[in-house]
Design brief:
It contains no helices and 21 strands. It has about 220 residues and is mainly β. A hairpin with a 2-residue loop joins strand 4 and strand 5.
């Protein structure tokens, strides 16, 4: 009688709309996902990105060059959980909490940014060299992945709540309150090259003469 030892699958737990960075410890030649409705896998050397799509449990098998495989059981929770489990998880996460409709400017060296949530929830766009404008909608929850060819990917975990930022992001430094239809000229200390409003349904802003930015309130809300 022959007995074969089969390695048990390792487990990773992650919240829906969050992403785990998995380093399998070798160069994968193929990846197989049990249920693609639960998890999406994308390469981002030297790791794999595991996106939690919807609550559920599935398997992820990663094939080596010799045909052998390593397996993980991935459980996606219906909450905001950060990835746990492993081994193989890479912790390159920074948290950013914004009020609904709020934004921040983040200084992150990266060639590109990607996500798996709608712009109405979490958005990102370039805002000058090495800087990114990040904003959150009313249900602002999701992970942004910033690709850096030299250092590998890193994750910005965006949520809504009491504003808090890590070392890479700068929150708004002042608050302006206006009645709908009101206008105010703000001295921003230097000539504005670009003015961006997260929610143009709440306010409009344009660069004026000198260091002035003219802000006009359109509708009740926060942006």
């Amino acid at each position: 009688m022959w007995w074969f030892a089969v390695a048990a699958a390792q487990q990773i737990t992650v919240g829906a709309d969050r992403v785990a960075l998995l380093d399998p410890g070798f160069q994968p030649t193929a990846v197989d996902i049990g249920d693609r409705r639960v998890v999406e896998v994308a390469p981002s050397a030297p790791v794999l990105l595991l996106y939690g799509l919807r609550p559920g449990t599935t398997s992820v098998s990663v094939e080596r060059a010799d045909g052998s495989t390593a397996q993980w059981t991935v459980k996606v929770l219906p909450d905001d959980s950060a990835p746990t489990g492993g081994p193989g998880l890479v912790d390159r996460r920074e948290a950013l909490t914004l009020p609904p409709g709020g934004g921040a400017v983040c200084t992150i060296a990266a060639e590109a940014a990607s996500k798996r949530v709608a712009d109405e929830r979490v958005g990102v766009q370039p805002f000058g060299a090495g800087r990114w404008l990040v904003w959150a909608g009313r249900d602002g929850r999701g992970d942004l992945v910033f690709e850096d060819e030299a250092k590998g990917p890193r994750v910005l975990a965006v949520a809504t709540g009491s504003p808090a930022a890590g070392a890479s992001c700068q929150l708004p430094s002042e608050e302006v309150r206006l009645a709908a239809g009101g206008t105010v000229d703000l001295d921003v200390g230097r000539k504005a090259a670009t003015v961006w409003v997260v929610d143009p349904g709440v306010a409009h802003a344009v660069a004026g003469e000198g260091n002035v930015v003219r802000l006009t309130a359109v509708h009740a809300g926060t942006t």
